[in-house]
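Example record

Each entry pairs one chain with its bound ligand, zinc ion.
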Amino acid sequence: MIRHHFIHLFRVVLLISFLFYGYTEVNGQQIIEGIHYHTGQPVQVKVNNGIIEEITTLDKPVGKNPVYIAPGFFDNQVNGFAGVSFVFGDSDLTPEGIKKATTELWKKGVTTFLPTLTTNSVDVLTKNFEILSAAVHEKQLKGSIPGFHLEGPYINPEDGYRGAHPLAYVKLPDWEEFMKLNAASGNNIIQVTLAPEMKGALDFITKCSRQGIVVALGHHNADTKTVTAAIDRGAKIATHLGNGAANMINRHRNPFWSQLADDRLHISIICDSFHLLPEEIKVFYQVKGVEKTIITSDVTHYAAMEPGEYKTSTGETIELTKDGMLRYPAQNVLYGSASPITKGVGFVMKVTGCTLAEAVQMASTNQAKLFNLNDRGILEPGKRADIVLFTVDNFQVNIQETWVKGERVFKN
Ligand SMILES: [Zn+2]
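Structure tokens for the complex follow.
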């Protein structure tokens, strides 16, 4: 009898500790509980062999500060993280470094990301793609890197539109060269950001689209006719809309209107609170809607580093301010971001009034669809168990646990 009471007490304690979220393992099957980010209902997610097997709604009260359960975040523009740069030529990019960046991103709830290489010499791009392609299939990375994003070198060379990309390496689109770079990447380039007004760019877009490579328009000053032609030929998305443009633009004829006006085009926006004003994010979101808007970070390796001045590989001075702004003072432009996409999930809710479900869709589901990665991006049986548990406190997302392919890789 006493034993029976003891077991009952044990069950009650167990129940209380897993009331709002938690994790148990029964016969090799993992069970994760939390408040479903979309329905707001307490759910139990059963995971088997890295895959979501079943999701059951539970009859439990929702606490005051609920721990949400959602698909892991997907960032399509990551230049580096936590001191590891994917873009520098003189850095010792190593498999260990790639693993470090990946595990640090997991801590922020990012379970899928595209290492993004920016304008540089063909030698540097080739070398870094080779190192990345050798590392991505390592078991330890658990499929978190499904491919790469090449931003540049086929962009507009003008100051402002070029952003912080080094002028010396900006060039016209060159399909043969790109094919060599893609070969160096193990044919893993799945996104290219280019300027459609450059000579040869439209044919380049057609060729990419035929190969299933997502073409993004960015760092450009194309007129409406050219933007429309680029989308006709398969361009899918505008890269970090509102950035990668000159400070002074024509109020009628500028790339923002034409890209906003074409309903076929997705947009990515950097929601780190520095790259765009709240009213810009709100208008972009209202025009494009939740289906066509993607939150991206454009995060650099300066993320998770100390504030101060740093020198880039080409000798430029970069400043990371105390509040997390990353500046390139010589051109008075931003030098990418130091905030992971996680900050954007909270910030987009704050400035647009969108729901958590909509914010997560823009940080995970839309990306998976855009890149045709149908194994992730949503909490659903049959999908990869890439899962985040988090609280939301005053529009700040605080990651509690991260799961990648059914394995807990981070716990707060
Ligand atoms: Zn850019």
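Confidence is low (pLDDT under 50) at residues 12-19.
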